[in-house]
Design a protein that fits this description.
With about 220 residues, this protein is α/β, with parallel strands linked by helices. The chain has nine helices and eight strands. The chain binds pyridoxal-5'-phosphate.
């Protein structure tokens, strides 16, 4: 369990963001060619100004209630918001007014709630369990076509949460597989890669990388 972040300056965020962009460029990826989403589940609302002032424009939250609260703060209003957690169908209605994408749709009940409360502007990413990890959420690749077809709202792309690993190269095959699945289904958005493996994910075509710990690390004075 990771602890709540207790301090963060705009300078920390700006420096961390610069080093993320440098790592991408050094790996042959244009840092302006993808979106950097700040995953804020461990960041209290009071620290959101540091994010906005440090150059972040897109935030992602895992819990519906926290998203609604954070998105309505003054700093939260300066950011765009995506929902990146496990979507509970009873939270769909509350979060829809604040979000651009819901990244993590993987159940029929979530689709049913989206059908009820979603509109023409509602866009989702389908979470895919590419690694076939039994403990993980996500639609199996073999059920993806059917799942996309049954969505009552626009499917903009795919998202995945690969296994935790010390060696990011081990996740390259999962990112590549997600890109192939997106291409097979004519989808353009690919939400993949976290602090542990964003460089590899970006090399494999991520359009959105979701970063927490690397953005919030203290950088000294
Ligand atoms: C927390 C979280 C991230 C960011 O994880 P870090 O390892 O801190 O970069 C990315 N995606 C999702 C879905 C998350 O919950």
């Amino acid at each position: 369990m990771v602890d709540l972040i207790t301090s963060l300056s705009a300078q920390d965020v700006a420096r961390n963001l610069a080093s993320v962009r440098t790592s991408l460029a050094q790996a042959g990826v244009d840092p302006d060619g993808l979106e950097i989403l700040a995953a804020v589940k461990y960041l209290p609302a009071e620290l959101l100004p540091a994010l906005a002032d440090g150059g972040i424009t897109l935030a992602g939250e895992n819990r519906g209630q926290d998203l609604v609260v954070k998105a309505q703060t003054p700093a939260g209003r300066r950011l765009h918001w995506d929902f990146i957690g496990t979507l509970q169908s009873r939270k769909v209605r509350a979060i829809l007014p604040y979000v651009r994408y819901i990244h993590s749709v993987a159940t029929d009940s979530a689709l049913a709630a989206l059908g009820r409360y979603g509109g023409p502007d509602t866009s989702i990413l389908v979470e895919v369990n590419v690694a076939g990890d039994p403990g993980k959420t996500g639609v199996a690749p073999s059920h993806l076509a059917e799942f996309i077809k049954s969505s009552p709202v626009k499917v903009a792309g795919l998202m995945t949460m690969p296994p935790l690993t010390d060696d990011p190269e081990r996740n390259r095959i999962y990112f590549r597989r997600l890109r192939e699945l997106a291409a097979d289904h004519g989808l353009s958005e690919l939400s993949m890669g976290t602090s542990q493996d964003f460089v590899v994910a970006a090399q494999e075509g991520a359009t959105i990388i979701r970063l927490g710990s690397v953005l919030f690390a203290p950088t000294g004075s």
